[in-house]
Design a protein that fits this description.
- GO terms for molecular function: oxidoreductase activity, acting on the CH-OH group of donors, NAD or NADP as acceptor.
- InterPro entries: AKR, Aldo/ket_reductase_CS, NAD(P)_OxRdtase_dom_sf, NADP_OxRdtase_dom.
- This is Aldo-keto reductase AKR2E4-like.
- Pfam families: Aldo_ket_red.
- The protein has 339 residues and is an alpha/beta fold.
- The chain has ten helices and ten strands.
- The longest helix has 15 residues.
- It is globular.
- The structure holds NADPH dihydro-nicotinamide-adenine-dinucleotide phosphate.
- NADPH dihydro-nicotinamide-adenine-dinucleotide phosphate binds next to α9.
Amino acid sequence: MAKVNIPALKLNNGRDIPALGYGTWLGLNDKAEFDPTDVPKMVDALSYAIDIGYRHIDTAHLYRVEPEVGQVINRKIQEGVVKREELFVTTKVWHHYHREADVEVSVRASLRRLNLEYLDLVLMHWPMSISQDGVDEKIDYLETWRGFESVLQKGLVKAIGVSNFNVEQLKRLVANSKVVPASNQVEINLNLGQKELVDYCQANNIVVVAYSPFGTMVPSRNQPNSPEPKLNNPTLVTIGKKYGKTVTQVTLRYLYQRGIISIPKTVTRSRVLENASIFDFALDNDDVRTIAQFDNGYRTVVPAFWQDFTNYPFEKRPVKLEIPLALRRWKNGANLDIE
Ligand code: NDP
């Protein structure tokens, strides 16, 4: 079986974090509902990922797959493929759980669903706090962060971090908290370079993790007006040919050379291998400069239905949208949690 060798970066708690992870968000379907059809494919692809050497797994309460992710992890431990301490498991606290005491409730529920004794990293998924009924709870993320500091102190998690925080929010958090976040997970890809945010994080020892690393490059995310590059972009194809690599590999390698960890999602075994086969070549400076020119600030993930909520982190758009029920109530709108 093929094997990949994924290097590690250091977190500010002194622990290693593998420089590439496996993302487990399967998305919502055309009706804006969670569709479990792809869950068995994800289980197969994640099993394969661990077999070939992936050690970093990114999940979240929102994704509804913590039970299945935990089953794969525990099976691979039982099979002797990997030890728990060799794995790096991240999950996230959803924005219904922003009261200080609720953070521990959420983390303990994730541990139960994953059937794990500790997490390597837990993130505040978004800076806003929104109830299941779509009410703006206006809870300051500084309060929520105290809940994160508490689960860290209790040993439920090895590191705590945030996600979708902009620079101002991160600076305010750092200035007013005991524990500096170990990581900020945000959208970064060739269109959205996030230079200011990345520079701030790297200067302050906060590891940057890129979600949606392919942006709108891949067909599932390709919008009618979305900008280049696509998978057939001639410039990137030419660069890839020079190194014997695909356009997606060039993309992930470029982010790695910026010191950024990517967590691409795929339910396709061949892509699991492809995405991690980026540590055996290096883009030269000319190619890095060329690729950097695709950065135009274009955002792929735009949850404009949250934009009027306190602490929404992105620029606002002139639209008014309803929050999809599946992002508020777990069972596609029913007011029930996942088991
Ligand atoms: P990605 O950029 O990872 O794109 C996923 C898509 O790319 C899928 O359609 C997949 O297809 C396709 N794909 C994957 N690899 C290849 C390849 N080598 N060649 C061609 N196509 C490929 O986007 P995501 O939005 O899924 O982000 C990745 C992860 O980041 C998520 O799974 C989640 O863990 C995290 N995330 C976090 C967010 C946050 O708010 N913190 C928000 C969004 C994501 P297929 O599966 O069919 O192979």
